[in-house]
Amino acid sequence: MDKCPKCGGVLTEGEIRFASDSEMPSPMNYMAGIPRGGAPSVYPTSTSCPYWEEKTGRRTGFIIKSEEKKTLKINAYRCTLCGYIEMYTSDKHEKR
Question: DSSP labels for the chain?
Answer without folding.
Answer: --B-TTT--BEEEE---EE-S-----TTTEETTEE-SSSPPPPP--EE--EEEEEEEEEE-SSS-EEEEEEEEPEEEEETTT--EEEE--GGGB--
